[in-house]
Amino acid sequence: MITSLVAGKLDGHTSSTFGRLSRLSRHLVRGVCGGLVSLALIGPLAFGFGGRCVAQDQSGTARLTVRPRTAAAVTQNPKAGEYPLRSAGYVMVVPQPCAGAQRCPLVVFLVGTGDSTRGVTTALRPVAEKYGFLLLAASRYEPSVVDTALGEALRTFAVDPDKIGIFGGGGAGRASLIAGAGAAAMRLGIDNMDIFNRIGSISGGYNLDGIDQRDSAVKFYIGQSIGEYGQAELWLTRDVPAKILMNFRGLDPREEDYDFWGQWLHASWTPSATATAPVALASESPSRLTADMLKQMTTFWTRFMQEPESIRTTARRAHLREVSNYGVMGDNHAVLMTDMAALAAKYPSVAADLQTAGLTAEQHDAYRLSLLVDAHWTQAFGSDTEYPVLDHPDQFLALWATGMFATP
């Protein structure tokens, strides 16, 4: 565990605090599929990745031969349910909004290594039901297999050929083995932008080779944990807009990750829908977090994590919002955070937790965002300046122990 590792470093007294912790926590993880997978500054978030790669042809691409506008001849979907395909164990989910005589968007979702199509359909079916798209859970990534399965899906179900997306990520809790699915989805998507016009990864590594030759109608979505900042910097070198949404969690995507992803899909494919814009915090994040600030945060989160499940989980999720992270990636980069002011206004016990910690809700949110911004500039861009939290390792570890970094 990182706590014991950091404690050991702190007891060594052999170098500066920053030197000890930064050497411990700087891990550049390169995925077997090539390209940057993760650059995690903070030890608890320095995950390793493994997984399957997409086989490429001699041209170095993963081209598919299926042509959706030609293959999509079906105009009637069966009743809502799950339908195994003959191809490679793929499973099609038909949600209730897509049942009957109508064509729906199709999302191909690649399953992380060690996961199962059942895990993905269980996690994502509620999202497909809520936002109205067909879901094809894919357990194999080889282009020939994807080609065959996609062709079968287009000939069997009523798919809108102009609304097909491909994504990859985890669905059954195998955090260390997700990267292959994310990388495979990005590779297949980028190499086939005439087929897929919504492409992305939810916790998984990727590279962006070939992305500059994109169709202007193609949109990208990247869902990340707070330990995956290294991926975000890739987009700064490309003139390619992408929605990048971070969450306070480990590599395992949460229910809210999938819901906000589904919301983005629906808004991007539906002209009449209004996309939810990230909010800007009322209070400006501090330029440097102090030991007292970290102690205040620790006091609040220690108390908040003792709230009943109805507040700590259910109500908190109901008050999640996208907060702009302008200091990092601009308008398209946001982080999921609870609207603590709204939560405190509804639940007196949360307001009391803040008061005991000597915090306003606005201060809490600003301090929390500052943790992410500081981490990014030090980590993703290789800055030699100290990461402010590392000035106060004891206070940082105490805050870490509350579970705040794993709770949106």
Describe the structure.
It is a single chain. With 408 residues, this protein is of the alpha/beta class. Helix content is 39%, strand content 17%. Mean pLDDT is 77; it is low at 1-53, 171-178 and 380-385.
Q: Which characteristics define this entry?
A:
408 residues, alpha/beta, two-stranded antiparallel sheet, 39% helix, elongated
- Helical stretch count? 14
What structural category do the secondary elements indicate?
Answer: alpha/beta
Unreliable segments of 5+ consecutive residues:
1-53, 171-178, 380-385
Q: Which series of helices and strands comes N to C?
A: HHEEHEEEHEHEHEEHEHHHEEHHHH
The CATH H-level superfamily of the largest domain is: Alpha/Beta hydrolase fold, catalytic domain
What's the domain count? 2
Terminal residue distance:
22 Å
- CA radius of gyration is 22 Å
Approximate shape: elongated
CATH topology of the largest domain: Rossmann fold
User: What fraction, in percent, of the residue positions are helical?
Assistant: 25-40%
Number of strands: 12
Overall average pLDDT:
77
* Widest beta sheet: strand line-up: 3-4-6-5-7-8-9-10-12-11
Strand percentage: 15-25%
Summarize this, please?
This protein has 408 residues and is an alpha/beta fold.
SSE layout and pairing:
Elements: H1 2-12, H2 17-25, E1 27-30, E2 36-40, H3 68-71, E3 81-84, E4 91-94, E5 104-111, H4 117-131, E6 134-138, H5 143-156, E7 159-169, H6 179-191, E8 198-202, E9 219-225, H7 229-236, E10 242-247, H8 255-269, H9 291-304, H10 309-318, E11 320-324, E12 333-338, H11 340-346, H12 348-357, H13 361-379, H14 393-401
Parallel strand pairs: 5-6, 5-7, 7-8, 8-9, 9-10, 10-12
Antiparallel strand pairs: 1-2, 3-4, 4-6, 11-12
Helix pairs in contact: 1-2, 4-8, 9-12, 9-14, 11-12
